[in-house]
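The following record pairs a protein chain with its ligand, dihydroflavine-adenine dinucleotide.
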Amino acid sequence: MTSYDVIILGAGAAGLMAAIEAGKRGRSVLLLDHAKAAGEKIRISGGGRCNFTNLHTAPANFLSQNPRFCVSALKRYTQRDFIGLVESHGIAYHEKTLGQLFCDGSSKQIVGLLLEECSRAGVELRVRTRVGRVERLDDGFSVAVERDEARDKFICHSLVIATGGPSIPKMGATGFGYDLARKFGMKVVEPSAALVPLTFDETTLRKLKHLAGVSLDAVVSCGKTSFAEALLFTHRGLSGPAILQISSYWHPGREISVDLLPQRDAFAILKQARSERPKQELKSILSELLPRRLALHIVESLEEEETPGAFGRMADLSDKKLRRVAVAVKDWRIMPQGTEGFRTAEVTLGGVDTNELSSKTFEAKKVPGLYFIGEVIDVTGHLGGFNFQWAWASGFAAGQYV
Ligand code: FDA
């Protein structure tokens, strides 16, 4: 049986980072993954350009049952540190919007950077390797693996679980990390899909299906949380950055509210239009403010509640009616039925309970030598490069102690 100082399960963003840091400290490191290549989610991320961090990363960008858990690691390895690494490899990048940094070229450059650093640090990487039984020994762990038909067993002092969450199973995502945590008596916060499109029930879908493809800037709110970004109507519900963001805060049975005309006073605009262009139809005025299909839909919905033609010429619309139109535009209420689930979710909400781990070392309090990093933990970032920054920061932290 070959022995290593450190075995890391999962060669994604967090596992690669932890492997590099542990290797740099002179540890012998074996990095295992069942996928055909390391960093597959990095490769497909950010539309192929990898939104590798966010200039404005702060603890407020993360959800967790313990919002303070992420603070220490994010301070010890910041967005500036990762940007420095990217620059040291000569990878060109740009800020797309809201502090989101993307490669100018391809996300493969980030995978290449990590693999090069791994190789410099002497990390042994084995992909296409299925992980079997993990056992606790007196002084470490044994890990049974299978590759092609060959079986093997390795032992290590420190075992790092970096197997991510179950989002996008067809990419090799599994709930392996949760099962292992439970096996060692650790609590797991119920995982659910996050950064995911929302879906409508049949009745709502029938009414809104013709809007599929319409997109606009909006402010989407759920309770006290709001996001101002783009919104997209789909064939099954709503998507776009504003919806993905709010999905992390939405629970079944809750309504979301959408401001379709952010930062503008719809009532004042409508009143002005009535006095300046009384002969125009409401639908023409609304079409100047919103995508035409959406404007027509709003007028039709209002008329359905009253009578056909009730929201026609501007001159015929009372202040009361204009207020109703303004509310339909500024506070559109919708009750999603569900989400598209793990099939398309970018991340997982929940995971290994942070109370089980040290926020300094990421070692399990009950199981010395066992570490959890990255998405497998109950720490979930907003959309915009925050999830990778968490993977880098938690991987870096654990890499200093394994
Ligand atoms: P990650 O999922 O990256 O790695 C886990 C690894 O473990 C995988 O390689 C997997 O094969 C392996 N594994 C799982 N089970 C195993 C088992 N049983 N045995 C062996 N190996 C196993 N974030 C961001 O900040 N910017 C972005 O642009 C994007 N874009 C994006 C697009 C899409 C389509 C998705 C799905 C996700 C994103 N994300 C993102 C989120 C980001 O990809 C995610 O938060 C990180 O990859 C999490 O890193 P981890 O290393 O924790 O898990």
